[in-house]
Amino acid sequence: MSSRTLPLLFINLGGEMLYILDQRLRAQNIPADKAKKVMNDIITTMFNKKFLEELFKPQELYSKKALRTVFDRLAHASIMRLNQASMDKLYDLMTMAFKYQVLLCPRPKDILLVSFNHMDAIKDFVKDTPSILSQVDETFQQLIEMYTPLSSGEFQLIRQTLLIFFQDMHIRVSIFLKDKVQNSNGRFVLPTSGPVPYGTQVPGLIRMFSCTGEEVNRLQFTNGGNYTAAVREGSFEIFGDRVTKLGTNMYSVSRPVETHMSGTSKNSAQHTKVNAAPNPLAKEELNLLAKLMGGLEVQKSGNTDSGFRVNLFATDEEEEEALISRPDELSCGIINIQATKDQQANAELAKIMGEFTESGDQSPSASSKGDDLLAMMDGL
Amino acid sequence: MYHKEKSIQIKNSASSLYNNLGVLRIGPRRLTYFTVVHANVVNMVSASWDGLNYSHRQLQSKEPNVATSTSLIIQAAFCVLPSRELLVVTSQKGIQMYESDGSIMVYWHALDTPETPTAQAVFARGISAVWDNYICVGVSSGSILVFDVPSKGSNITLSEVLEEHKEAITDMASECSGSQECIADLVSADDGGNLCIWKSGEEFQLLNKIHGFDMSCSSVKLWKGTVVAGYGTGQIRLYEAVTGILHAEVNAHARWIYSLDIAPFSGLLLSAAEDSLVRVWHLNMTPETNSVEVAHLHNECVTDTQICGAKFCDADGYAFAVTGYDLSEIIRYTQT
């Protein structure tokens, strides 16, 4: 629907990913210099100029599969490694967190404030590295220029597009369950109390007017909730108080990251059926992946001594168990570019992985090549 | 005043789209049809009045050719004309019209979609039957397409394009089809909260334009010459259509209003919003004093649900139905 949704989806999910990784790196006592390197590498890749250029073009939202692959790549942009189960869990947490933020935003425009909260935090992660910081600042400016002029209706369209992307996702997140913002059936709590959005009045008043415009009657009605007046509006500038807490880091060492995988809503299975139809336009998604990987250093296998693995679970056994017991409907068939089937596929892969030294132009040539690549990816 | 009845289960959950519930009552067959949009699919349920029989059908959005991406459906609504009833489905690619049971597609109109996506989204939204033989559909550019519908068959033609709105159309409504004479018979609303009042005919006439306040009007109804409009701020405003006089203003909801409906025989008004609440009001027109009274009657809270569709199931407002984002059921309420 809205062709301006992808940058917001990417930045907010990326922000959540960084919060989670930051917490896990500290919880696992990874040495500070290595942890910093991981965060810096991931943020540098996230804000790679060519990649962002591709991202900010007007376009439809990418399929869940393609987006998951982008984040897989991003998570592996440094010396850190994640097993399949940990990557699955990371992605579940990221998506449920952003779904929560989108649902709970009082006004659609507040999604921009949520994005700015994530951007503020990302800037803080790289505040000691001016080169990366300036990349992030530039993107911040781009976001401000692109989104602040949009109308309320256009923001609602963006929000509706995001909600279609998150439709039927009801994964239970321990931190949400503990805070009672999520029910045991995976659905979020939507309170009928608290401050109304900026620009809205507390419900309860009916005013009637004469033809000359004078108020002739006033009636009150019970609104069935417990609302208070709106709080002040958050800042849409590069620096400022965003007011909303949505999009700020909810994890800390004392509030660890966990998920419940059991009891996912049976609706998710129905939903998977609807989404199973192949997406013939995945070529554009491949373009995005190509641009992203163009920004990645090819990780040579000799780096194993400085590389390390991060576990999103408390123990390795738990991680293994999670992989085995993961409900089928949640595995969204990640495009695993490592596995290949034939020579031609290999050549296409090599091209995508950036081993070709041709600068930039990865536009799909003859449509048959693109189709073969897609067929191969879908078959994995 | 109302109590909850048994819900109707649907195949997919409802998507978060304005006015996401279509209802058509088929008296002679003692059936009611419901439509709920989920991404690129319309879920149709045919429910018998005795509550014993439910049959389901799914309609897909039509792509002009397979190579292009899936087209998301924005709205599905029943259009009741004196001679026939059609189901109109609007999407990012165009407008599909079906026989009311969804069995046959009788017409397809493709929107002008650019080769590469533009910053401004392209889609059709806002559907209304007007007078004897017109179906009007709004477009994201602000245009309104007027289709001339014959009493039977598929020879539907595009009769006129109304260019008055500058922002995306959100909703449209009409009154007075058939024998009744009305001054105004169509109202259109847009993302800027602007309302246009029209008189149908071979050439539609713009009777009035009511300017908005930069806040989207997501749902609109027309009844006895009064426009009832619901806004993103949660406010409902009632205007006299032809003059634009503001009759009443209601701070109705704490979040964006997604659906309004009126039961024309009783003057009951239904409003539903993302704040989980459905409210029932009564509208009383006093022609002598040219005033409208609004009274609040009832609230229903659908816990933890952002409501996206709410409609009366009959012209008296004896029953109504509700849909919500991520909910795979149509919740029903009947008067006690």
UniProtKB/TrEMBL annotation, chain A:
Q: Which Pfam families match?
A: Oscp1 (PF10188)
Could you give one GO CC term from the UniProt record? cytoplasm
Region Disordered: which residues? Answer: 259-279
Q: Where is the composition biased (Polar residues)?
A: 261-273
Question: InterPro entries annotated for this entry?
Answer: OSCP1
Reading the lineage from the top rank, the first entry is Eukaryota
What protein is this chain from?
Answer: Organic solute carrier partner 1
UniProtKB/TrEMBL annotation, chain B:
Q: Extract the InterPro entries matched here.
A: WD40_rpt, WDR54_beta_prop, WDR55/POC1
Where would I find the WD repeats? 250-291
Q: Which GO terms describe its cellular component?
A: centriole; ciliary basal body
The signal sequence is: none
Q: According to the lineage, what is the superkingdom?
A: Eukaryota
- SMART domains, per the entry: WD40 (SM00320)
> What is the name of this protein?
WD repeat-containing protein 54
Q: Does the keyword Repeat apply?
A: yes
Alphabetically list the UniProt keywords.
Repeat, WD repeat
Sorted alphabetically, which PANTHER family does this protein's record hold? POC1 CENTRIOLAR PROTEIN HOMOLOG, WD REPEAT-CONTAINING PROTEIN 55
Keyword hit for Cell membrane: no
Instruction: Kindly give the PROSITE patterns that the UniProt entry links to this protein.
Output: WD_REPEATS_2, WD_REPEATS_REGION
User: Lineage in the entry?
Assistant: Eukaryota, Metazoa, Chordata, Craniata, Vertebrata
Specify the WD repeat-containing protein 54 beta-propeller domain's residue ranges: 1-334
One GO biological process term = cilium assembly
